């Protein structure tokens, strides 16, 4: 699993991709994990959560892509401050490498949670997100990367063993279930609710719908005006079931999804054009399937999205 | 265009993709070119041709991917010898970086030119080539790469100003015309003939053909049993015309094709599954078009494939 440079002093790097592994014993086998985060807003809670992960830091690379927008200007300053702090602190607590990219492609204007989710703006928004994710992926994945963990910048709470837990399943593509904590005014207590509806299994209704669409039309999950009757992982959470329970999926979100690097290396990316009527992370899942990989979800393994 | 590391000593790399350029004055603007070559056989003529290119070497990175096969074992030894020679020679003549990958995905057994081109084996062969190209691309493209030049290992002759000539057109995807020198027994003299038929423009016949195909069937160019009547760039060579003449294309080969890095970074890769009934480099061209880019060919700009 360890890669070596044959004559590094002369800028020759030699890698045997066949020796590069992604196994269920990732940390023991010293497998390199690349955490990729598109970031419009820097949340201190995201960063704190990242720092409490227990996977060995010298095996973690971070990659960020930040939009050219006002909110991006703010985010990059805050991020750089934290990055500098950790990477200039003692050697043992540094990440292997951190890459910060400023986005080339146009970004979508900041919108509130409601507007952002309005179906009309979603197609354009998600197609731009697809380009941002591709720019980030292509620029940071290396010949030594074993795993890519897609984690959105507004994921603020996860088990500290997140990477060990996910890699242990040894799946090509594996999505955690994304919930949101909130204060339930009716019940007058703290509560949680499903947040991400991009993790789903295919339904015959959605397939029929797809057949009825023009070649460039897309299906977006989570909209009443386009009922797909797809089984959504968000609703399969069983607090009494084992956290290791899995379910087969056909679409995933990018909130907290672990991908074997070979899946991306084989070509799986985030289409910004309709791919089987799907785009971005959902299009990625379909592409991974076309490349012969299985998509899996962990309905009882929760991570939390910030409440806005 | 120069990229800078903010705090390199602490493993933080900062890149503004918006500042990264690919222009018609590539060498003057110090734009980094990544030459990518899948290599089953090492030909000394290929290497010699590479060394006679006049684009500044410190702006060139080389990336190779070599199959796990007997012929690959031989190729890697020969390649490594040459690489070591050049990279340990004086600093001024070294390439910026050279990455040699041993292929993870299965490779196709070596075949002669005739068998290799038989239509029945092409689908499998080209689908494996697609994976090799993706592995190579994803592992080597960096946030500082401006251009990617795809050059097959059996391209043995090109103008020494190849990179300057191609970048000067400032096109997202630009294919040279691939010919082959041979001894014409009938005319009893040295001659040349068209070699690569993967550079083509779409035809209505091919589009109708595509419509008649099942979702997983593919069209392969250059086979009598599947006549597409596509205009093939190979036949548009006009020895009296200007070498800078361009033509619009829809499909390309990977023999000698220059791509702006942003096209790949937006997500354009080599599908190993039918994409609009196309795979590998031809599927790549279609994907680049779907991402909004134009495909261009240079019918009068010749580079030469080895004669086997
Ligand atoms: N680079 C980049 N990141 C963005 C952009 N818009 C949103 N993001 C980030 O992408 C991720 C998903 O976006 P978000 O708006 O949270 O989507 P939602 O949670 O599905 O509503 C988050 O990490 C955002 O910070 C953008 O235009 N460019
Ligand atoms: N990595 C890798 N390279 C290959 C393999 N097969 C062929 N190549 C290389 O891919 C390029 C195109 O292949 P080639 O057989 O020449 O195709 P043709 O010229 O279109 O007949 C050449 O550079 C070959 O050396 C393979 O299985 N793996
Ligand atoms: Mn979010
Ligand atoms: Mn060839």
UniProtKB/TrEMBL annotation, chains A, B:
GO cellular component: endoplasmic reticulum membrane; mannan polymerase complex
Protein name from the UniProt record: Mannan polymerase complexes subunit MNN9
Family: Belongs to the ANP1/MMN9/VAN1 family.
Keyword vocabulary terms for this entry: Golgi apparatus, Membrane, Signal-anchor, Transmembrane, Transmembrane helix
Membrane topology listed for this record: Single-pass type II membrane protein
Signal peptide: none
Full-sequence range covered: 82 to 389 of 389
GO BP terms, alphabetized: cell wall mannoprotein biosynthetic process; protein N-linked glycosylation
Compartment list: Endoplasmic reticulum membrane; Golgi apparatus membrane
Single GO term (MF): alpha-1,6-mannosyltransferase activity
